Amino acid sequence: MSKYSNPMSRQVESLPELIRSQYEDLEPKARTVLSFQEIFNIQRIVLTGCGDSYAAAMATKHAFEMLTGIPTEVVTALELGRFYCKKHLGIDCRNPLVIAVSNSGTGARVAEAVERARKHGCFVLGVTGNPESLLGVNSDKILKLDIPSFESAPGTRSYMVSVLSLLLLAIRFGEVRLKYTMDQAMAYREDIKRQADALESLLPGMEDTCASVAEQWKDFPCYDFIGAGFDYATAWFGQAKILEATGKFAMHINTEEWFHLNFFARDAREMGTVVVANTTNPAHSRSRELVKYANVLHRPLVVITDGDKEDFGGEEAVYIKVPKTEYPITMPLTHFAPVCLIASYISELIGEKYGRGCEGDWSFAQGGAGVTNSEIIVD
Ligand SMILES: N[C@@H]1[C@@H](O)[C@H](O)[C@@H](COP(=O)(O)O)O[C@@H]1O
Question: What are phi and psi of 35, to 5 degrees?
Answer without folding.
Answer: -75, 165
